[in-house]
Amino acid sequence: MQVDIQELTPIQSFGRRIRAYDKATRLAKEGRPVTEISKETGTPDATIRGWLVNGRKPWTRCELFKPTYSDQLTYVIGVYMGDGSISRWRNRFLLRLDVKDKEFADKFSSTCAHVLGRKPYSVRHVRDRDTYETIISNASFCKFLNRGLTHLDRYVREHPSGFVRGLADSDECPTVTTTKKRGKPWFFVQVVVATSKSIRLLSYTRTILRECLGLKATLVYKGKPRPSVFKNKLLRSRKRVFDLRISRFGDVKRFSRVVGFELARKQEKLAAAIFVREGFGSGQDAVKEWTRRWEHGTTEWILKKGVD
Fold first, then answer.
1. Which CATH superfamily is domain 71-147 in?
2. 293 phi/psi in degrees, rounded to 5
3. Which pTM does this prediction carry?
4. Which of 8, 161, 180, 301 has the most crowded Cβ, counting Cβ within 10 A?
5. Interior/surface letters 21-40, b for 16+ CB within 10 angstroms, e for the rest
6. Which pLDDT does position 236 carry in this prediction?
7. What whole-number distance in Å separates Cα of residue 153 and Cα of residue 81?
8. What are the pLDDT digits (tens) for 244-271?
9. Domain extent listing, the chain
10. Are 11 and 93 in contact (CB under 8 A)?
11. Sign of the CA dihedral 244, 250, 255, 258?
12. Nearest CA to 294 among 308, 280, 279?
């Protein structure tokens, strides 16, 4: 049965292109002309000439991804699960990260480039959103990431720190609380590994933390997402949001050692909080020392300017 040439596209029919290429090279060795090979394989004449005359391979354009176990790969998996997205535009599959933090976008770009054996992908500033965006176009890599946790589990368990670090870099940071407990000043340090509406993702990550890294984490109900405006309409979500938190100080210190944050500002804050907790305890002295160097910004603690 003759194949309809219009149905064959580089992305949708990658497997068929490989088979067509193998058949085309076999027919060429038999002395068949290009037009006859085109009809026999259902592939355009220009594509056949590119294969047979110019030496092009059908997998070059699709950049066939062959996964290898590495910390960099699981970091990308963690970022994708936390803050990334995959979309399809025509015959292209796009892995996109759109974030406020340029350091994070640069890190993701360079890590994806390392995994794929490419030069770092460009990071552009999106002015209307005031965000930084990097896009990786690789169909087989996107399909690999999109196969879900069941398929990716063996890669994650081989390098669990990278996966957790990618999740933690995506949204969360060290959480420092300076408040009063039973009427006395209290300094409390914890790590929020991830915030998500997906109980499955958070439960899976909690299992990885416990079984692979020896860290105890708990799920904490955070509430419902804030209403958002889209096309002049106020949208309210019914889905609940949960945090995955590491609260025991011993586990917080271990997290810093075996996982940590890839982003410098987050790791610096975690190290500073651990230093204060170890050196000044959890009472008034710790609160005084912490607030000497740090101040509470709009959403998180930030380092004061001009403080040693």
1. Homing endonucleases (3.10.28.10)
2. -110, -20
3. 0.77
4. 301
5. beebeebbeeeeebeebbeb
6. 66
7. 13
8. 999 999 999 999 999 999 998 899 999 9
9. 5-62, 71-147, 171-303
10. yes
11. negative
12. 308
